[in-house]
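Support request, please re-run this one:
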Amino acid sequence: MKFIIITKKFWQKLNFKELDKRFIIQNNINFKVIKKINPKIIFFIHWSKIIPDYIFKKYLCIQFHTSDLPNFRGGSPIQNQIINNIKRTKITAFKINSIIDGGEICLKKNIELSGSAQSIYMNIEKKVIKMIQQIVNKKKLKFIKQSGKGSYHKRRKPEDSKINFNKQKSVTDLYNLIRSTDADNYPKAHLCFKNFIVELFDANLKSKNLYAKVKISKKR
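Re-run finished. Output below.
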């Protein structure tokens, strides 16, 4: 019995060392490999691309979405929730179907949205690995249909990381923007001033004041 885990990024490779030889890790969808392995379940972690229907119709595919589904379906769920000042949410494991983040749910776990996006992603990955172990060890999986209207949010674009004082009207708003973008390979919260870009990261709130590290570079 084999399982495949498809993830576009490893936030902390030590997390995956907990898994045994039943698990094959891939960083892309390779149907030939999947067909050869013939897995019982394919898990998707940190995956934002559309999964072809010939995959999820032939194999049981379970994806992990960091929101309390059906709330905050769609792209950039971590960033969108932080921007909306949500402090606690869920990691939802659901069966993939033709509706974006709309499949039946088999497991939810609590997660805190405190600290930088980097630390949040690392914590999510650690919890997801434990959720995967819990799922594969169940004798029978039960899936429950999502209930309620929920909400859908678009994937944030690089230009959304630009500080806009019409949107970030308080110190807390600015803090949330900075930490929501503070992860590897994410466009940092920034200001543009003449020929310079001012990036902010590693933010902290102390006594209602915001402290952050700054990187200043010339526009390319």
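Residues 50 and 100 are 8 Å apart (CA to CA). The helical segments are 31-37, 53-56, 77-83, 117-136, 171-180.
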